[in-house]
Design a protein that fits this description.
- The chain has 253 residues and is of the alpha+beta class.
- Helix content is 16%, strand content 42%.
- Strands 1, 3, 4, 6, 13, 14, 15 and 17 form an eight-stranded antiparallel beta sheet that branches. Strands 2-5-16-7-8-11-12 form a seven-stranded antiparallel beta sheet, with no helix packed on it.
- It is globular and about 75 Å long.
Amino acid sequence: MSKSICAHQISEINVGNPVKYIGTILLYCFWCAFVSAQQLNEAIEPLIEGDNVISLSQDNTLDNWQVPSNLWSIKNGIIIGDTKGEKLDASQWLYTKQSFKDFEFTCELKLSGDERRNTGIYYRVKTFLFTNARGTKSYMAPSGYEFDAAFYQDNGINNKRNDRGALADWYARRSLRILADQSLINKVFKTDQWNRMTIRALANRLEYWINGIKVMNYVDHDPQASREGLIGFQLHNGSAMKVEFRYIAVQRL
């Protein structure tokens, strides 16, 4: 409810006796202030803290994760995915052992490597056997959502393709790709540096923040959309790359 709506509603009150209606007017004013504050808070990055927060890297082990290969490791609380100078034939994902439905999640991410380096944070994941369009390659891939964290590629005509901050279900629902505002992403995302990525998934509403700035607010009305599943990190195929994650925490809602 906006202040203009409140003013319109107040104008409809019979104010012939101001004392009689002063309580009603004050109630409307308090309600408008409350709603305005709620709208403002929607843009504020969740503060993930408290006794029910699950740290996914604090113990300096990968015990909370399903480890697909020796390309994944942890050092000083930092989870590292490193192709070790090689390009993968198929993407890999490091998934949590726990499943999450409604939650708030945060981590810091840093990506380095060649010009095709690419990664994402996946959530509400259920895996399935994916076959590429040519039918030449099959592997287990995520059905669920992705916070596309770092894809930024020059297409050769000085017009950058920028999927950073995008929301997608790339493997199972190819039509779902909601792009963030490129001008905003270019301001807030720090290439080759640490970036804080935060997600709130509550029912069918999905929200993203990068370095404290809100970049995505999407409501998925698809009745087949995933509502619960694993959280995962990606090493993308076709790139010699290294991705690092630290301060990884999730809180169920």
